[in-house]
């Protein structure tokens, strides 16, 4: 464990931070090929991740001791973009209304968590867990849609299906780490680092997967 | 440290396995649903083919009945009328008008015979497609100005009666179109048997028409005859290629399996 935290963990942080650049570069190459709304939404999602990483690093560079406020803002904006993708993908009014309701509810949870419950300097565990649960639900709703509509013959060609898979794995994998982060940090820094390491590995996989999703969103 | 991370270490893999399980389930379920949909589509196609086959069979049966009635009843009655007219003419002093009536009756009997023959060609049943087409060639009225050239590598060869009848109807439809609309002077009809297939080629030197625009508008009604031919040939698992353009005549190439 000691070896992991001293040798691999710093390297993992760098790789995971840089991994968002992979889909971003792929997206830049594909920019001219597409004018689809879906592509732009996914590309905005990636751009937001890059901006969030950059601002986090800049905050630390400028000497601030806490940059968790960036995660608060990023969580809300990421949820809005991913919800827009699902909103755009569903046709049934019931699902669309459900997504609007989820966005309103989540915005409320975000604000309450940031200013009333955990605070802007603490990890937004409650927001993360509730947001992840809602996004997983949207992903499963999309699975339900494609399993019944049968309009998509090859699932691996459907960008929203791939995005739903990515979200399902990423959010299912990171939810517990976010939920336990504040408790782990209170116990020890190393425990918190283990939680972060899980998030970093899954972030890396998620961003690599987003590159493929962007490619599919152009065709 | 390990104690505080226990929920993360236990629940995270469980959630990941669940997530992957859901994805795999969706993949498999969707594949199964697609296969089911394909199976239903296949069954519907078979049912449609059976319905079409039954409709065409019923149509042919009705034609056969009308042809038989025309030949046996109307033809016999006309022959009787002609006999009576002959007797009346022999007793009458005005023989000329009697002769005129007899001439008109001959024309009517000829027409009835021709219609009956077109509805159900006896030659086709008795002697096969090659001979039936030869009879069709001879039956083209000289006044139409159309000369039909028929070439056949095995004129006496017999194949399945249904195939013979379908192909006869196809040629009948194509020839009717030529006589009605094409203003052609020559028609070439070729019938080439091989071990597995029968290749029928029909070509005229008439006006032709814009087939591409007609096929783009299938609901226009203009291509109903051709669609009918296509449907018949699909029942035989045959291939139907049709070419026509303005002032370029018309060509149809039909291939059906006979083995």
What does this entry look like structurally?
The complex is a heterodimer of chains A (219) and B (259). With 219 residues, chain A is mostly helical. Chain A has one domain. Chain A has 8 helices and no strands. Chain A is globular. Chain B has 2 domains: 65-116; 121-257, 2-Layer Sandwich (Heat Shock Protein 90), CATH 3.30.565.10. Helix content of chain B is 66%, strand content 14%. Chain B has a 5-stranded mixed beta sheet, covered by helices on one side. At the A-B interface, helix 6, helix 7 and helix 8 of A face helix 1 of B.
Return the CATH class of the largest domain in chain B.
Alpha Beta
* Portion in strands of chain A: under 5%
Largest sheet of chain A: none
Overall pLDDT of chain B: 87
Count every beta strand of chain B, where a strand is a DSSP E run of 2 or more residues: 5
CATH homologous superfamily annotation of the largest domain in chain B: Histidine kinase-like ATPase, C-terminal domain
The average pLDDT of chain A is: 91
Radius of gyration of chain A, whole Å: 18 Å
Structural class given helices, strands, pairing of chain B?
A: alpha+beta
Overall morphology of chain A: globular
Number of helices of chain A: 8
* Span of the ends, CA to CA of chain A: 45 Å
Gyration radius over CA of chain B? 31 Å
Pfam family, one (chain B): HisKA_3
Cofactor (chain B): [4Fe-4S] cluster
Protein name (chain B): Oxygen sensor histidine kinase NreB
EC number (chain B): 2.7.13.3
């Amino acid at each position: 464990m000691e070896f992991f935290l001293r040798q691999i963990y710093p390297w993992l942080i760098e790789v995971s931070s840089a991994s968002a650049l992979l889909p971003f570069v792929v997206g830049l190459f594909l920019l001219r090929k597409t004018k689809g709304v879906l592509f732009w939404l996914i590309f905005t999602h990636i751009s937001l991740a890059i901006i969030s990483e950059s601002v986090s690093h800049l905050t630390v560079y400028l000497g601030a001791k806490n940059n968790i406020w960036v995660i608060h803002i990023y969580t809300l904006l990421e949820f809005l973009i991913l919800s827009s993708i699902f909103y755009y993908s569903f046709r049934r009014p019931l699902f669309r209304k459900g997504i609007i309701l989820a966005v309103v509810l989540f915005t409320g949870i975000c604000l309450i968590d940031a200013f009333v419950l955990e605070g802007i300097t603490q990890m937004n565990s409650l927001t993360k867990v509730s947001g992840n649960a809602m996004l997983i639900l949207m992903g499963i709703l999309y699975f339900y849609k494609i399993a019944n509509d049968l309009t998509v013959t090859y699932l691996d060609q459907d960008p929203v299906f791939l995005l739903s898979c990515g979200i399902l794995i990423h959010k299912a994998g990171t939810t517990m780490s976010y939920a336990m982060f504040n408790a782990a940090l209170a116990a020890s820094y190393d425990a918190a680092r283990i939680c972060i390491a899980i998030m970093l590995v899954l972030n890396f996989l998620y961003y690599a997967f987003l590159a493929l999703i962007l490619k599919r969103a152009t065709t | 440290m390990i104690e505080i991370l226990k929920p993360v270490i236990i629940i995270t893999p469980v959630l990941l396995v669940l997530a992957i399980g859901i994805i795999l389930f969706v993949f498999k379920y969707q594949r199964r649903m697609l296969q089911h949909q394909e199976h239903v589509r296949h069954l519907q196609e078979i049912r449609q083919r059976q319905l079409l086959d039954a409709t065409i069979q019923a149509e042919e049966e009705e034609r056969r009945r009308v042809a038989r009635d025309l030949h046996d009843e109307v033809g016999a009655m006309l022959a009787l009328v002609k006999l009576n007219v002959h007797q009346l003419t022999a007793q009458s002093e005005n023989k000329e008008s009697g002769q005129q009536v007899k001439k008109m009756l001959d024309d009517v009997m000829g027409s009835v015979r021709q219609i009956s023959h077109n509805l159900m060609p006896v030659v086709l049943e008795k002697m096969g497609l090659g001979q039936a087409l030869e009879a069709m060639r001879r039956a083209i009225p000289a006044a139409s100005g159309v000369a039909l050239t028929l070439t056949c590598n095995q004129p006496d060869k017999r194949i399945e009666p249904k195939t013979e009848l379908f192909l006869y109807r196809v040629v009948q439809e194509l020839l009717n179109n030529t006589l009605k609309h094409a203003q052609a002077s020559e028609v070439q009809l070729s019938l080439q048997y091989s071990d597995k297939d029968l290749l029928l080629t029909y070509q005229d030197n008439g006006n032709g028409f814009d087939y591409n625009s007609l096929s783009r508008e299938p609901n226009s009604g203009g291509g109903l005859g051709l669609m009918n031919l296509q449907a018949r040939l699909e029942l035989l698992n045959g291939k139907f290629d049709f070419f026509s353009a303005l002032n370029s005549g018309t060509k149809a190439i039909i291939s059906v399996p006979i083995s």
